[in-house]
Amino acid sequence: MDFAIGNHLIIKDGIITGEIEMHNKNPVDDITDCLSRSVCKRDVLYELCNRLGISAQQTIAVGDGGVDIPMIEAAGLGVAYNAPPPVQSVADISIKDMKELLNYL
Predict the structure, then answer these.
(1) What are the C-alpha distances in Å from 24 to residues 43, 63, 101?
(2) Sequence ranges of the domains in the chain
(3) 26-104 carries CATH number 3.40.50.1000
(4) If we measure between CA atoms, which residue out of 64, 58, 41 comes closest to residue 105?
(5) Within 10 A of 83 (CB to CB), how many other CB atoms are there?
(6) What is the pLDDT of residues 86-104, one digit of tens each?
(7) Rounded to whole angstroms, how far apart are CA atoms 79 and 48?
(8) Which of 70, 97, 92 shows the shortest CA–CA distance to 82?
C-alpha cells in the first residue's frame, strides 16, 4: 500500500490511551460539511493528488454513501457504486459492478 490516511491512536509510554488524533485538524460544526468528519474524503483526495503531482480532474472517485459525496463531486469522474439516490444524483456515472469501471480506465 502506497498511502494510508486515517485517524491515529495516541500511545503514551507504550500504552494506547483510548484517545485518537484526527486526520482533520480543523473540524467544523456544520454536519452537512465534509470537514465535520474526522476524515474528509474530499480533502484526502486533494492531499493524494498533491503528493502525486496530479489534478483532481485526473482522478476517479468511487463511493456508496453520503460521506463520499464531496469526494465524488471533486473527482474528474465521480462514480456511485450500489449507492442510494442522493449519491447517484451527484455522480457522473452509477454502477452496480466494479468491472464496469474498466470501461473508464
Answers:
(1) 9, 20, 30
(2) 26-104
(3) yes
(4) 58
(5) 23
(6) 999 999 999 999 999 999 9
(7) 18
(8) 97
Contact 71, 62 (CB under 8 A): no
pTM above 0.90, yes or no: no
Residue 48: pLDDT over 80: yes
Edge to edge, the sheet with strand 93-95 lists 60-63, 77-81, 93-95
Q: What is the largest CA-CA distance in the chain?
A: 51
Q: For residues 100 and 12, what is the distance between their CA atoms, to the nearest angstrom?
A: 46
- Sequence-ordered alpha helix ranges (H) in the chain: 41-52, 69-74, 85-90
